[in-house]
Specification:
mainly alpha; Herpes Virus-1; 2 domains; 6 helices; zinc ion binding; metal-binding; RING-type domain-containing protein; zinc; zinc-finger
Length: 198
């Protein structure tokens, strides 16, 4: 019986040693995993902060951020470059129109109902709120619906009424406003306000 107790005690001690060994191996694994996860988290945080600063600098002409964390990832040559349309391309590719049709239409960008005065792209005829398409053109050169590149739209031939007009057409003023050519006037006028000036 004493041999059985001794054997049982040895088995229990051996089992405790195995349990301790497994516990400490798990702790070592968790420590190494914790360090790896912490390093990955710090790297990802630095990359995210760099992207936020990079986007803020690209997206705003007035807000400037200084880099406190260096860019920690390589920027490849194969990344897409944001191309902004020129004022002439915006003027040729869009026009502010007043539509009196009965069919209700929503702006494809914000999904709100269109007012009678809105912007229509000349090539495809898609219609948007003037402010929505103005914001869109700060990020893209294509129609949000059909992806037609507005830079490919040719300006219409000038007519005698265009030459005699003192004020540029709305699409030209929209284009100038988008690129900041007129820093003192940052509002987009509608065709209704144009009628009051005429």
């Amino acid at each position: 019986m004493e041999d059985d107790n001794q054997l049982t005690t040895l088995d229990v001690l051996h089992s405790m040693q195995e349990t301790d060994r497994a516990f400490y191996q798990t702790l070592r694994f968790l420590d190494s995993d914790r360090e790896r996860l912490l390093a990955t988290h710090q790297r990802n945080t630095a990359m995210a902060m760099s992207l936020i600063r990079l986007h803020a600098v690209r997206g705003s002409r007035t807000v400037q951020y200084t880099a406190t964390i260096p860019l920690t990832f390589p920027v490849g040559w194969d990344e897409p470059v944001v191309v902004h349309p020129t004022p002439a391309q915006i003027a040729a590719g869009s026009a502010v129109v007043t539509v009196e049709d009965a069919a209700p239409t929503n702006c494809s960008i914000c999904q709100d109902s269109l007012s009678p005065t809105h912007t229509r792209l000349t090539h495809c005829g898609h219609r948007f709120h003037t402010s929505c398409i103005a914001e869109w053109f700060t990020q893209s050169v294509s129609c949000p619906m059909c992806r037609h590149d507005i830079r490919e739209t040719r300006p219409p031939a000038p007519t005698s009424s265009d030459v005699e007009s003192e004020r540029p057409p709305m699409s030209s003023r929209l284009a100038a406003w988008l690129v900041g050519a007129n820093p003192t006037n940052h509002t987009v006028e509608t065709a209704e306000s144009d009628e009051h000036h005429a």
